[in-house]
Structures are given as structure tokens and as C-alpha cells.
Amino acid sequence: MASNSRVSILDYFNIVFEGENGKIESNCKACGTRIQAKRTVTSNFVTHLKRKHQAMYDEFVKKKDVKREAYASGAVHTFAGNASGGSRSSSQSGAGLTKFDRSDPRQTLISEAIAKMIIRDLQPVQIVENEGFRELLQLLEPRYTPEPCHYIQQQLLPSYAYQVQLATKQALTGAESCSVTLDLWMSSSAAVSSGGGYLGVTCHFITSDWQIKSALLACLPLTGHHTAQRVMSEFDDISHAHGITGRVFRVVSDPSPCESRHTFRLPGFCLHDNGEIDEDEEEDSSDEEAGTGESKEVVQADEGDNSLDRCLGRCRIDCFARSLGLCVREGVRSSPQLSIALTKAACFYKYVIATVAPEKLGQVFGLGVTAATGQNSSSVEQQWNTQLKTIRQMLESADFLEDIVDRHDLALSSFEKAVLQELVEVLEPFEEATDMVQGDKHVSISLALPCVLGLRKHLGEVITRQCSGIVMGLSQALDRRLAGILEDPLYVTATTLDPQFKLSWSSDSDWHKQVLLEEVEKHTQPVSPPEPCPEAQPSPSKRSKLFSFIKQRPTTQAKSVEQELAAYLHEEPTDEDPLQYWKRKSIDFPLLSQVAKKVFTVPATTTAVERIFSFVSKTLRPERCRLLPKNLETLIYLKANYRILWA
């Protein structure tokens, strides 16, 4: 039987002072930290253990659980007996238990865990009022008192948001400069449900110890027709509120900011069985009917006066990840015969997934395939580069799959295999580039210029016999959207200051050196050597005479930008992380490091809020609009900044 002794958080602390009204001061037994609290409100002690001594905290929670189980065992047995007799409902199973006080650590921790679930899954706060959810809580912890919906929505979530705002503003105080990503998300279903869309403003900065940090500064709902002037007005207000006005180095936004989807699905490779028409497919159809396509519309917008360009000037740059995705989209569309082979491949894939044993599927597609849905853990139908990997796996195991499948009419013909094989070979470098600029890790724009050069070289060498038009389409899209990167001083500077590239990519190093020098002079302040302090002449002594043969060290002279650049380029390229390299070399190259600390804040990849928008777009389908949380912008804000509160 479990012990009846009380489990107390104070067992892990030494009480050194006890005052009036139950006030106590205690030292942590593990680290000696002084904690002040009341005997009746011990959350400070619990928080200290949770953050500083995880093992001790786990031990404390385990003891509490054991005590709880022993205390609640009678109630559980009563519930089991009444369930068989049908004389008592499950909601009454914990009626005989003493509920937690509002200040009890377990009450607080469970409420926090529920809030975390709502934030991470973007669930409506009203879920806490659902009968099934409350029955689950009653079963797991009968002593917990569920918090009302209005408390979580009006107090708990705003409190978390306020904590994030304070932490972000404090972190930005020490940042010399930062870059900002504007994510404007609009959707037809969003327009139906909320009358507009959402604007996400994400800030990227480097701390004093050369750590890259990103934080969503705001997620704002936009109602009605949005304009560039309104977006800029909101952006100015956010910048002022967070104290970054005048310190923004670059603003990154989509070249066509009507949507925030950075990838597309390969045409025809649809893995849905429920008859749904994807938004991408609808756009493809409308483009074909109009005889234009997204690329032409975007070009027309680029050739005209872009409002964001007028407002931000040279401070604004296109998102490289988005531009790269649009290049692939336009190139694939230029080869119409691809859609037929991709449709056949999708049918064959779905049949294989539905009929073949999982252990055999694992030999081809890995362990992530789920037979019930026809999807893998990477969401095959979501991104073209993931779909391309699946097609490559199918082609590599085509003979094996055809042997174990009984529907030979679904098998790919030799011509279809040849078409898909060419598609894989042509898009492989684009797939590699896309993989590099996706994911949670901050990716610098220093990768953009080498990627463009590598893609150009690949397209100049590849030969196609089946996929006519795709190489020319990709080349034209690449020149139209990304050729300007090769001469842009920002990209030249970022790539040269990346220690893995330096000027190894350049065909005209003298010109690129000059570009870099001009860019460095724009964004640096002179670094002067410390003035020597006047010292009195030392009186003669045995020690000074003893060491008089040692020459006095010459005063360190500040290097010019040219000298720093020459010394930097003289070193061999290294695969060391750029931020770690400049942290180590900031003393040797103070002028270059100033610029490095700016250019490496500019992201080439999508941001956390953009990925959240992509997730939300699934929730905002017209048939599911009723599930939309009322305070969606607060949940998005907290989800994007989850690590700030809960690392």
C-alpha cells in the first residue's frame, strides 16, 4: 500500500525564513537558489524544479502520481462497480474526491498542458467545454477542475501572448539590425469566413553571441480589400511597437503575395480518392482556359509599378524559396505530356499502397507509408519535391512492384517510365535546392547565388528526348525570376562572406571584390584602435633592466576593408557554420563581421508562420469553417513563438 505521508514540493528546499501570512524563503537543496513564496502558493518552487532540475521535478511528479493513484483507487473501483450496474454515471466517479485548489501545482500544470495542446494543434478554445473532453479529464485526474472557456480565451492565452511580446522586445533591444519577413495569406474560404486574410510579420536577428533567432512579431487579421499602403501602415506600427524602426536591414516577401504557398503539386500526381479538387488544380484549369497562367500574371505585375517596391524601395527582396518554386511550376507546365504519365503513376501508386502488405512497401517507400491513407509521414501530396522522391522510388523498384501487383493494366509502360525518368533527372538539382531551403532551420540567402549558378549549369548540360519543352521552360523561368541575383550586391556579399563559398564561384573575382568593398563601406562604421593610455615613465628597477632586451610590442593598427578582405580570401574555404566562423573571426575582421551580422539575418527559406498558414488553409475549407477558432490570430502567434515560452 502507498504511504499516507504528504508529498510536498518543500521537501526539495531548505526553509531559511518564515514570516507573517505564511511567507517563506527557501534555498534549493540542489543549487542554493533563494525562492520566496507562500506555503499555500508553491508554484514558484515547482517552476524552479521544472526549469533547473528536471530529474528532481520528474521525481516529485512521480510521487504525486503515486499518491494520487492510492487516493483515487477507491473512486475508480466505485466507478467500475457502478458501470456494471448502470446506477451511476461516469461524470460522478470522482465526486468523493477533494478537488485541487486553484493554486495547486498540479492544477496549474494541467491547465498549462491543455493550453499548449490548443496552441500547438490550433484547436478552438471551446474544446474545453466539450462533454467528451471533460470526461477524459475526469478519468485521468478526478481532482482537476476544468477551467472555463472564457478563462483560457480571455486570460490565459493573452497572458502567454504578453509574455512572448516582452521576451521578444527585450531580445531585440540588443540586436544591431534585423531582417523581416512579410507573409500575406489570402484564401477564398478565408474571405468567406472572416472577410479577408492574415498578415504575419516575422523578425530575424543575430544575438551578441552570434546565434540566429526568429520571432513572429504579430499576426493580424485583414478584413476587406488589402492594399500595399495598409500593409505598410501595419508594418510600421509593429516595427515601432517592437523598437526596430530604423534597424530593419531587408524585408523579404513573396514576389506574388496573394498567397502564401511556396510549393505546388506535380500536375496529375493527385493522391486523393475522395473526389476533392485541389486548389492548385483549380488554378491550373483556370490558367489554361485563360491562356495565360500564373507566370504571365506575375511578370505583368513585376513589369509594372509594384506597390511594395515603391513603399520599401531596395529594402525589399523576393523570397528565394517562393521564386524557386515558381520556376519549377512554370517549367513543368511547359511540357504538357508530363501530366498523362504522372496521372498513371498516381493511380499505380495508390493501388500499390492499398493492396500491398506494409512490410513489402517498406522495402520501396520506407517505414513512413500508411496504407490506410496512401500518404507518408512527409505528406506526399503536399510538396512537389516530396512527390518526386516517391516517383524516383517507384522507378527504382518498378520490376519488383509489377511482380507483386495483380493489376498489370495499371503498370507503367516503357514510354511512361522514360518520361518520368527524364522528369526526375531534370528536376533533381531543383529538388536538392528546394530541400536546402525548406524546414525549420534558418537558411541564409548566401545559398541563393550558388544555387542559381548550379541550376544554370545543369540545364545547359541536360538532354531530354521525351519531355520536350521542360528544359527551355525551366531556363526561361530561371532567367526571368532569378538571374538578377547574380549581379545583386546583397547576394554577392552574402555568398562571398559565407566561408564555404567565398569567391570560388566567381568568373570575375576582381569585379566581385569591388562590389563587396562598396557594399561593406555602405553598412560599416570605422573601427579605430584603442588609444594608448598615457603612462608615467617607470622608475628604473631590476625587473625593467632584466627584460630590457625584449622589444616593445608595436601598437596594433586597424586594418582597412581591403586588407581585411584580402586576408579573409587568402584563407581556404571551410564548411564551418557561417555564424560560428564569424563569431570566431569577428576580432580579426571587425569590418567584414559587421556586414556579416546583417546579411546572414536575411532568410532564403519560408518562415514558421507561413507553414502555419499552410496548415490553417486545410482548416479553412468551406465545409470546415465552423471549426475555425475565433481567436485564430492569437493561436497562430503563440504557435509560431512556442519555443520562446516552452523551449
Q: How many β-strand stretches?
A: 8
Helix share, percent:
40-55%
Looking at the structure, what is the overall shape?
globular
Structural class: alpha/beta
Low-confidence stretches: 71-93, 189-195, 258-262, 274-305, 370-380, 622-627
SSE inventory with pairings:
Layout: E1 13-18, E2 23-28, E3 34-38, H1 43-52, H2 54-85, H3 105-120, H4 131-140, H5 149-173, E4 178-186, H6 188-194, E5 196-206, E6 212-223, H7 228-241, E7 248-253, H8 279-290, H9 294-303, H10 307-312, E8 316-318, H11 320-333, H12 337-355, H13 358-365, H14 384-396, H15 398-404, H16 414-436, H17 448-461, H18 470-482, H19 489-496, H20 509-522, H21 542-546, H22 561-570, H23 578-585, H24 590-599, H25 608-619, H26 632-640, H27 642-645
Parallel strand pairs: 4-7, 7-8
Antiparallel strand pairs: 1-2, 2-3, 4-5, 5-6
Helix pairs in contact: 1-2, 5-26, 11-16, 11-18, 12-16, 14-16, 16-17, 17-18, 19-20, 23-24, 25-26
Walk me through the structure.
It is a single chain. The longest helix has 32 residues. 51% of the residues lie in helices and 9% in strands. About 13% of the residues have low confidence. It is an alpha/beta fold and 647 residues long. The chain is globular and about 85 Å long. Strand 5 and strand 6 form a beta hairpin. Helix 25 runs antiparallel to helix 26. It is built from 27 helices and eight strands. The protein folds into four domains: 139 residues, no CATH class; 146 residues, no CATH class; 209 residues, no CATH class; 74 residues, no CATH class. It has a five-stranded mixed sheet, sandwiched between helices.
